[in-house]
């Protein structure tokens, strides 16, 4: 499976996003561009933000994904869907 950085998840379909607060994990269940199931689990999660306002209309396909890292070692995964909605996950 491709990674989050540099739009590596482009054209993957987001099926489910779930969080395990106790374990500090976020799980993304997706289908790759060929329709095969894929999952990605991020650990050390400190924050999760998600919109579902659909400013561009219906859609659940990933347009872009990337990871930024701050000077203090916190990573921020950013995912944008073709609906215009965004998911941001801060983790170590």
Overview of the structural elements:
The chain has strands at residues 13-20, 25-31, 37-42, 45-50, 62-69, 75-81, 86-91. It starts with 12 loop residues before the first strand and ends with a strand. The strands form two sheets. It has a four-stranded antiparallel beta sheet with strand order 4-7-6-5, with no helix packed on it. The chain has no helices and seven strands. The radius of gyration is 13 Å and the shape is globular.
Total helices: the number is: 0
Sheet with most strands: 4 strands, antiparallel
Strand order of the largest sheet: 4-7-6-5
- Quaternary organisation: single chain
> Rg from C-alpha positions?
13 Å
- What is the mean predicted local confidence, pLDDT? 95
Number of beta-strand segments:
7
Question: What global shape is seen?
Answer: globular
Note the topology:
Elements: E1 13-20, E2 25-31, E3 37-42, E4 45-50, E5 62-69, E6 75-81, E7 86-91
Antiparallel strand pairs: 1-2, 2-3, 4-7, 5-6, 6-7
């Amino acid at each position: 499976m491709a990674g989050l950085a540099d739009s590596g998840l482009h054209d993957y379909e987001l099926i489910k996003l779930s969080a395990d607060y106790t374990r500090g994990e976020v799980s993304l269940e997706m289908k790759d561009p060929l329709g095969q199931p894929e999952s990605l689990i991020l650990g050390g999660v400190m924050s999760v933000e998600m919109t579902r306002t659909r400013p561009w209309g219906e859609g659940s396909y990933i347009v872009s994904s990337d990871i930024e890292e701050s000077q203090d070692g916190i990573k921020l995964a950013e995912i944008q869907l073709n609906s215009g909605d965004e998911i941001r996950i801060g983790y170590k």
